[in-house]
Amino acid sequence: MKVNKITEKKESNFLPGKGITKITTVPNQQELERNKELEYYKDIFYQCGKCGTCRTAYHENGWPRICPSGEFGKFEAYYLGGKNLLTWAISTDQLKWTENLAKIFYKCSVCLACTQQCQIPEIHHYAGEWLMAMREEAVRQGYGPMPEQVKYTEHVMKENNPYMEKHKDRTNWLPSYIKLSPNAKLAYFIGCTTSYREQEVAIATSEILNSLDIEFRILDDERCCGSPVYMTGQTDKAKAIAEENIKIFKEAGIEKIITSCAGCYRTLKDTYPNKYGLDHGIEIFHLPEFLLDKMKNGELKFNKSLNMKITYHDPCHIGRHMGIYEPPREVLKDIPGIELIEMNRNRQNAWCCGSGGGVRSAFKNLSAFAADERILEAKETKAEAIVSCCPFCLNQFKTNIKNNEIMAFDLSELVRKAL
Amino acid sequence: MNSSKLVSELEKIVGDNYVSEEPEITFLYHYDFITAEPEGKCDIAIMPGSAEEVQEIVKIANKNKIPLVPWVSGINFGSIATPRRGGIVVDMRRLNKVLEVNEDDMYAVIEGGITWADLKGYLDAHHPDLKAGVTWSPPGTGVVPSCLCYGMFDLGMIGGTGAEFINGLEVVLGSGELVKVGSCALSNLWYGRQPLPDLAGLFIGWEGTTGIVTKMAIKLWPKLPFRTDYISMAQTMEEGVPMMLKLSKAGLGIIDLCIINLGWAQSLFCFDSKNLAIDPIELGLADFFGIITTQAYTEEQHNAQCKAIEEICSEFNVTPLTADIQVKNFPENLLGIMHHISPSTGGQTPIHFWGCWNFSRGGGGEWIGSYCSTRNILKYYQLSRKVCIKYDNPPQFYSRLMMGGHYCVARTNINFNKNDPEEIQKARDCLKEIHEAVQNIDGVVMYKPPTWAVEHNKNKTLPATNTLIKKIKKLLDPNDIMNPGQGIEGE
Question: How do the domains of chain A map onto residue ranges?
Fold first, then answer.
């Protein structure tokens, strides 16, 4: 055997921002399917020993805490380890469903930062499935969703949005100068948050598409994608919404969809075909990846310098849920005058903004706690603005930023400014 | 006091968010979710946010004679944080701060509920030239209980057990009184336990039965700029162990000497039950793995140390390779946790649970873990191996040479499916048989022992020693509320 010399440079196992996420396949490792019901995963839950690895990210610049639910709730039950073992307890009749048990599972934004840390392969890869399956079961047992989520779901079923707004007002944001192509095969899917709360994102996105001479349309009857309904365990209702949406897309002859919303993107691209089995055959793009493609083929060029230090917040729905980390960064870095400074917790280890999974509607204190922590982390970078590409994250930051301590923008807003 | 009145009293101390008697919360404290030891019962879980709150909780429990179990992660192989007589579990994890780092005397003052991950994270961020040890237990486990219960980490060769890293303690006694031991008792500095009577011994090794530690000072060590981690391999333990013993007496800047057999290595490689070599010796596989870590201040010094280490190994026909090179000798899909042993951050990477847990794919594990004389490492291994093979378990053996080679740790792991009552029973039988076998070796004393093993210790001790233990316990915890049924006094 060769004796190597100590001067030999050692390779780092820690990839920037990724922590230890590499799970090497072991012999005969169980390959499981996603999107199954609780019963399917019953032999995995109890592999957990609540060792606490899920609470912390492991990278070279410190080992920071990672789970908003656990850091807020404190008790073991609010961390992934606790939830794994409570799921085991339910699946083996050691515990019965109660209102409190359901609340524990709903007091979680399903950001999945915990799963990135766990080194048990099956839990690392699949814990998100039973976190969702437990919500579905809570609904079946009559303990879910939470009252606030029931209320917005009723509104979604009636007015196609969870914001208590009228369906007819959905495109009130649309300026007359935006050029639409009524027969285009490409649709810009706005989403509810953008349509009713973050309309500048819709305007900026439309202007960008116009400036690129992209022929696109906005559907007259665009409705909620169903994400807030699905994420709260109401899968049957969410599937019905999906079926209706697909019908609308098909009748309009849509072949491609661009959306500026991370939640809509995840839902249309992943949940519709893989959870509901609705293979719509439509190409789905999230705005940053669409723009990156245009940038690479020379169609998108920036003419103005923005002269701004920013930090980028990874939305959970495109990050950990869909594995998209670099395209938004590549677009932002290409804008002249932009200096992108990373927060300590980024990419797979990003701290959730606290808005998703129905948390913002039902558990306002938890939601604000998560947002405050992220805003503080953004401020520590000395950036002038926190930039994301999810209107729900953006709205969460704007709501929780105090005294203009830092600005918040959607990626589309910066791109538009630089054109 | 009835339960609702008690909860109401406790809520006044910590706030209603941090007390619970709801079954979904208490369920997670009733059992360690690891071992083959019986489940216990947690009636109330509480999370204090200060030493004063701990005092108030203890006073209420003492007045009403309610059992209290101090708890940080509840993960240990002796099930010693399982509430055996019900009562209140005091989950310390809100007390998770580093209060002070003294770079001159190299120690950190930490709160009672801090985890290894918290401590390492803090030091890396604020004092990157200093390190605490890193255990092979998960990073979510508690620093204070690990040190109090004689856990050990990757600095064992220079510092000994975790208990020997303790400079001082702040403790709430069973009566609710607050005491300090060590230099901190007389000053603002926590540099050590000398020269006063060493009262830290009233709390070390007692498994939380004499008080609740709210603060502790832990020794830190400098991160020297030159470090090498070797993994050496030999065909048999009989060939490899003498080499490690010689290295332990050679100085050479060695901070860690760890011996594992193929059984333990297989778990680190993430072999599962279908791919195990139950008896590697019978199959002719290399059985000995030795991890040797050395560090130095200058490159020249380090080169000389490494050369001497390699020469000693060659005397035993062993060629040590550095960890990052050695792991490349294993097939990519069998590397498992070995990725994390390679010292990318000065060797201090977390050794997560999953490798050791993959054998049975059932999440259960327990050991017979002991301190013993270095002269008996092989005997311990051979006896425990025989029992493991009898029960069709791969023998997973681990030993660490401690404190410059003055003594060692020796332990044998068992894995099982904790969802299968038959496997749990088989694990219990196997563990008891290993215990019976190794306890006959002179000098073997089990640490973090489950209650049945404590009874065995009692029978070996002089009667006057048992009486002294009882008197001390009575003095510190007059109403026997502190983790009753556990610890050195046992049932």
Answer: 38-141, 147-294, 300-418
B168: phi then psi, degrees, rounded to nearest 5: 180, 160
Q: What is the pLDDT of residues A99-129, one digit of tens each?
A: 999 999 999 999 999 998 887 778 888 899 9
In this prediction, residue B351 has a pLDDT band, given cuts at 50, 70 and 90, of low
Indicate the helix (H) or strand (E) that contains B171: strand B166-173
How, if at all, do strands B396-402 and B254-261 pair?
antiparallel
DSSP B100: E
CB atoms within 10 A of CB A316: 28
Domain covering B3-91, topology: 3.30.43
The ipTM value here is 0.94
User: How far is CA A158 from each of CA A151, A161, A165, A229, A360, rounded to the nearest angstrom?
Assistant: 11, 8, 10, 13, 21
Q: Do B210 and B202 meet the contact criterion of CB atoms below 8 Å apart?
A: yes
Contact B121 A47 (CB under 8 A): no
| pLDDT in the model for residue A344 | 93
Question: Considering only residues 7 to 66 of chain A, which have any Cβ-Cβ distance to chain B shorter than 8 Å?
Answer: 7-8, 10-14, 20, 22, 24-30, 43, 46-56, 58, 60-64
Contacts of B137 in chain A (CB under 8 A): 51
DSSP state, B177? -
Predicted local distance difference test score (pLDDT) of residue A131: 97
Q: Give, in degrees to the nearest 5, the angle at Cα A57 between A358 and A14.
A: 135
Q: Which two tokens stand for residue A122?
A: 């099956």
Task: Outline where A40-172 has alpha helix (H).
Answer: 68-73, 80-91, 99-106, 113-117, 121-141, 147-159
pLDDT digits (tens, 9 = 90+) for A76-94: 999 999 999 999 999 999 9
The fold for domain A147-294 equals Rossmann fold (3.40.50)
**Residue in B334, B354, B358 to test binding to A, most A beta-carbons within 10 Å:** B354
Helices (H) and strands (E) counted in chain A, each on its own, are 17, 7
Rg from Cα positions in chain A: 22
Please, which residues bridge with residue B413 across strands?
B367, B396
The CATH fold of domain A300-418: Rossmann fold (3.40.50)
B201 interface with A at CB cutoff 8 Å: no
Distance from CA of A193 to the nearest CA of B (A): 32
Give me the CATH topology for the region B226-345+353-446.
Answer: Vanillyl-alcohol Oxidase; Chain A, domain 3 (3.40.462)
Using the 8-state DSSP alphabet, how is residue A324 labeled? Answer: -
- Look at residue B264 in the predicted model and tell me its pLDDT: 84
- The CATH architecture one would assign to domain B98-222 is 2-Layer Sandwich (3.30)
The confidence score (pLDDT) of residue B344 equals: 39
Tokens 């990519």 belong to B332
DSSP string, A249-318: HHHTT--EEEES-HHHHHIIIIIIIIIS------EEEEHHHHHHHHHHTT-----S---EEEEE---TTT
Give the pLDDT mean for B280-287: 85
Contact A257, A249 (CB under 8 A): yes
For residue A111, what are its two tokens?
A: 């950001």
Question: Which residue is it, tokens 């992108």?
Answer: A340
pLDDT tens per residue, range B171-212: 999 999 999 999 999 999 999 999 999 999 999 999 999 999
Indicate if the pLDDT at residue B327 is higher than 90. no
Residue A9 has pLDDT above 60, yes or no: no
Spell out which residues of chain B touch residue A95, defining contact as CB-CB under 8 Å: 23-24, 27
